[in-house]
Specification:
The protein has 209 residues and is of the alpha/beta class. It has one domain: Rossmann fold (3-Layer(aba) Sandwich), CATH 3.40.50. Helix 3 packs parallel to helix 4. Strand 4, helix 7 and strand 5 form a beta-alpha-beta unit. It has eight helices and seven strands.
Length: 209
């Protein structure tokens, strides 16, 4: 073993064969494979969902579908996960993964702008996972907040943003500026409890009171 992460991965639940294959294919076929959640974060997402027992999940930013499949593992048989991906070039890759999954009947994929699609999805959510355009985290948060049930959970990925949040961002670095604004907004929001986990690139857990 070469690192602490190797040790951790050797002592937690394994990812499924489908997820392991997805991970390999992403690194062969895609330009930015490191954006997918991966083994450790995937098991954390599943564990959080298992503990929260959501019946309906919203995911903003599907990318490869890795995190989607991890969250779907924790759904009840009648549960739903609605996932939105803006990049239409990812659709074929995503659907290839979903169609191989035993959870495909629980997954609803939308291709397009999340800010336009979210208002069209009926009903309330027990869990929301935000992992899309960092410049728009505040807009996503405002849009989904009233669609989250009381005691529901909002997860936001990349909230430590490769440690760029520790310095003054370049005026043109709108993604870092977006993450900083989101972190401050959540800090000041008295409607929620919140904590940032320093795993990978930062995962914020937000509990709606």
């Amino acid at each position: 073993m070469n690192s602490l992460e190797d040790y951790i991965l050797n002592h937690i639940d394994k990812e499924s064969e489908l997820l392991a294959r997805l991970y390999r294919e992403a690194h062969v076929r895609l330009l930015n494979p490191r954006m997918l959640s991966g083994h450790l974060q995937g098991r954390i997402l599943k564990m959080l969902a298992r503990m929260c027992r959501p019946k309906k999940i919203l995911e903003i930013g599907t990318h490869t579908g890795y995190a989607t499949l991890c969250l779907a593992e924790a759904l009840p048989e009648s549960g739903e996960i609605h996932t939105i991906e803006k990049n239409d070039e990812m659709e074929d890759f995503i659907m290839q993964q979903f169609n191989q999954s035993s959870f495909k009947k629980n997954i609803y994929l939308y291709i397009g702008d999340a800010l336009e699609i979210i208002p069209q999805i009926n009903g309330m959510f027990d869990m929301v996972f935000i992992d899309a355009d960092k410049r728009l985290y505040n807009e996503y948060y405002d849009l989904i907040f009233d669609k989250v049930n009381a005691n529901g959970i909002i997860l936001a990925d990349n909230t430590l943003w490769n440690r760029k949040i520790l310095g003054k961002p370049h005026p043109n670095d709108n993604q870092t500026i977006g993450i900083l604004a989101f972190n401050e907004k959540v800090k000041q929001d008295k409607r929620v409890e919140k904590v940032i986990l320093p795993i990978r690139d930062g995962l914020t857990i937000i509990h709606r009171l």
